[in-house]
Design goal:
Blueprint: H1 9-15, E1 27-31, E2 34-37, E3 42-45, H2 48-51, H3 60-70, H4 83-95, E4 100-104, H5 107-126, E5 132-136, H6 145-150, H7 154-157, E6 167-170, H8 175-181, E7 186-191, H9 205-217, E8 221-225, E9 249-252, E10 263-267, H10 269-272, H11 288-301, H12 304-328, E11 331-337, E12 340-345, H13 353-363, E13 365-366, E14 368-369, E15 374-377, H14 385-402
Parallel strand pairs: 3-13, 5-6, 5-7, 7-8, 8-9
Antiparallel strand pairs: 1-2, 2-3, 4-10, 9-10, 11-12, 12-15, 14-15
Length: about 400
């Protein structure tokens, strides 16, 4: 197909809504954990499309599933079900606490469904008074108006008129702040089992178990937003499995499709029955193409070999970053779990995470930020060890250029 215009970064400003500020680099192809731009410059991908490309780029299992299903059937309305959706749901149920699954297309949509379900459950079981939702400051749950209001960063929800009501925010890792807010009028507590956008903050054991206990005490549902932490990211299939805490509702997306849009809400039969026919839906949710790809992701990730490999690769990152820091002293802390790692900049470099990201890009390695002062790494879960070493060497060069 011949094109009659130049597809360059400047075209973005001409034709796209200005809600993003993408870099000058336009990637055009990827293989594994490497990406090439329009000029054929190579990059090591430590960003994973923000924890989405769980198996890197063009993984043969995913490409195979896409091609095979692409020649069968792409889309059906929810007037019919389909084989890939049923297979994927069965595998999710068999692998988790859940008994029922709802499919949609994104993390925000899976969280929207979870919040609507919690409100409907509370109304049906306890009455109209039980409607309070509690989430946590610096939390992130998506960009729909409901999820962005539940998210604990007012800057994202301000400026769009009156917000959905009866939503309050406690402090992460501060059980007393949750105790002060929770009551028998609370219908749900929504929490990330490791805060992602909020700074790669792990919960303390006492805190996460205390949240579960408070929910039980007040008959509130516990919703785990595992959009970023799920599908192997932290070294278990889902993060709750390593915390000794089981939620009532769990949301999943990002890595679940390995780059193909899909989201899922998982829950128990008893809670699920409140989303009876007609109460919620999604045109594309559970489409055969997305579910076929997601099934290939799950089959690949949910193995002892890959999950154990995540922990080993995480150690390579942490050791490598600590070795870099021993030379240049730019990080006050390396934190996180599995392959969701945050390097916190020292006082001297506060607010400069984006500068480090840009310098890394110049050196041929793609990283992320989590707030203004934290560099985030969310690579492929199967990134080869040599790509970790090469990417960290490039990242070190970027640091040298800045210190």
């Amino acid at each position: 197909m011949s094109e009659h215009f130049s597809v360059e970064r400047g075209l973005f400003d001409d034709v796209m809504v200005p809600n993003y500020a993408p870099s000058a680099v336009i990637p055009v192809r990827g293989q594994g954990s490497r990406v090439w731009d329009q000029q054929d410059k190579e990059y090591i991908d430590f960003a994973g499309g923000i924890a989405v490309s769980a198996l890197g780029h063009c993984h043969p299992a995913l490409v195979g599933a896409l091609k095979e299903q692409g020649e069968k059937i792409w889309h059906l309305s929810n007037v019919q079900t389909n084989e890939p959706a049923l297979r994927l749901a069965k595998k999710l149920v068999d692998s988790t606490f859940a008994e029922k699954v709802y499919f949609c297309n994104s993390g925000a949509e899976s969280n929207e469904a979870a919040l609507k379900l919690a409100r409907r459950w509370a109304l049906d079981v306890h009455g109209a008074d039980k409607s309070q939702i509690i989430a946590f400051k610096q939390g992130f749950h998506g960009r729909t108006f409901f999820t962005v209001t539940v998210g604990g960063q007012a800057a994202y929800s301000d400026g769009f008129g009156p917000k959905p009501g009866d939503i309050d925010h406690a402090e992460y890792n501060n059980l007393d702040s949750l105790k002060a807010l929770i009551s028998d009028k609370t219908c749900a507590v929504m929490i990330e089992p490791l805060q992602g956008e909020g700074g790669i903050v792990s919960p303390t054991d006492e805190f996460i178990k205390g949240v579960r206990a408070l929910c039980d005490q007040h008959n509130a549902l516990l919703i785990f937003d595992e959009v970023q932490t799920g599908v192997g990211r932290l070294g278990e299939l889902y993060a709750y499995m390593d915390l000794g805490v089981t939620p009532d509702i769990l949301t999943s997306a990002k890595g679940l499709g390995g780059g193909f849009p899909i989201g899922a809400m998982l829950t128990t039969t008893e809670i699920a029955k409140h989303l009876k026919i007609g109460t919620h839906g999604s045109t594309y949710g559970g489409n055969p193409l997305a579910c076929a790809v997601s099934e290939a992701v799950l089959d690949t990730v949910n193995t002892t070999e890959v999950l154990a490999g995540i922990k080993a690769k995480a150690k390579l990152y942490v050791d490598g970053l600590n070795a870099i820091n021993a030379k240049y002293n730019v990080f006050s802390e390396i934190r996180g779990k599995g392959l969701l790692i945050g390097a916190v900049l020292t006082e001297k470099y506060q607010g400069q995470a984006k500068t480090f990201l840009n310098a890394a890009m110049d050196e041929g390695v793609m990283v992320l930020v989590a707030g203004a002062s934290i560099i985030r790494f969310a690579p492929s879960l199967v990134i080869p060890d040599e790509d970790i070493a090469l990417g960290l060497a490039r990242f070190e060069k970027a640091i040298v250029s800045l210190v």
